[in-house]
Design a protein that fits this description.
8 helices, three-stranded antiparallel sheet, six-stranded parallel sheet, globular, alpha/beta, 13 strands
Length: about 280
């Protein structure tokens, strides 16, 4: 049971270790947890867009959320959903970093500029420290959006590459495996998410290729890392590789920065917490 004092301590630890403001743009584990789209007759699929609320049985969770700005956005939503009923003693520690991935590049390409971002490269040490302070039962890592959609110049390279490049993919695989080891070192189960293809005007053919390549990398990571679970965020928001609506069942999916809009974010947050709880209890010894 996690009381108010303990909750405040965990969040203070996260704030001191990792929290950075939200910025725009930026082995049974192989199965992705999702609900398939619902079809009504011969009409188009109705996408789930998360869950409307936490299930009644979801309680006593301690979830650390790390990653990029999407990780931070989802973490904020998960914290809000968890705090709505504190009698359940669910604690979420949002510690995502806007504008940061896990590649530890020499430079990144953003808005046409190639420049270093050294503040993003300390994640192994900061996450290791945070896990030791917080002792979560589960960790959600969402860094696929930034690393999929931002070309990066890797150490030893003279130009930026992306997830569709074999050298970039090899480094991403190694970095993701390292992140899983760091985040799971205290016994927490690590959860990854697939990434969305965005909706227009954010979607284009290049972004679509990057998202597909990233999702392939994430699925492969879940297969080769025993105990890692993959949550199919893409399946909650997209019917296929090019069909990621801007509005689902009357709910705006994206805000003006391309991150989940508040209602969509909270629904995705509830789905993530429901999925984490169900998985932890399904595999409890």
């Amino acid at each position: 049971m996690i009381g108010i004092t303990r909750r405040a301590t965990l969040r203070a630890a996260a704030a001191g270790c990792c929290a950075v403001g939200l910025l725009p743009g930026g082995g049974t584990g192989c199965r992705a947890a999702t609900r398939p789209p619902v079809r009504s007759g011969a009409g188009p699929a109705v996408l789930p867009l998360g869950d409307a609320a936490l299930r009644p049985e979801v309680r006593d969770l301690s979830v650390l959320v790390v990653g990029d700005s999407w990780g931070r956005s989802l973490g904020i939503g998960m914290e809000k959903v968890a705090d709505a009923d504190r009698d359940r003693h669910n604690t979420v520690i949002p510690a995502g970093r806007g504008g940061c991935g896990i590649m530890q590049p020499a430079k990144v390409l953003e808005s046409g500029r190639l420049f270093p971002k050294p503040a993003c490269n300390d994640w192994p040490e900061s996450w290791r420290t945070l896990v030791a302070r917080v002792h979560p039962t589960a960790v959600l890592l969402e860094s696929g959006i930034y690393d999929a959609h931002n070309p990066q110049q890797l150490p030893g390279q003279d130009h930026p590459t992306s997830i569709t490049d074999p050298v970039f993919r090899t480094r991403f695989d190694a970095q993701l495996d390292r992140a899983v080891r760091v985040l799971g070192a205290g016994g927490a189960r690590v959860f990854l998410t697939t990434v969305t293809d965005y909706a227009k005007p954010y979607w284009n053919e290049t972004n679509g290729r990057w998202s597909n390549a990233m999702n392939a990398a994430l699925r492969a990571a879940a297969k080769r890392n025993p105990g890692v679970r993959l949550l199919d965020l893409h399946g909650q928001m997209c019917a296929d590789d090019k069909d990621c609506p801007a509005v689902i069942s009357g709910i705006p999916v994206y805000d003006e920065t391309g991150h989940p809009a508040p209602v969509a974010r909270d629904r995705l947050a509830a789905w993530i917490l429901n999925s984490i709880h169900a998985d932890l209890h399904a595999h409890a010894s």
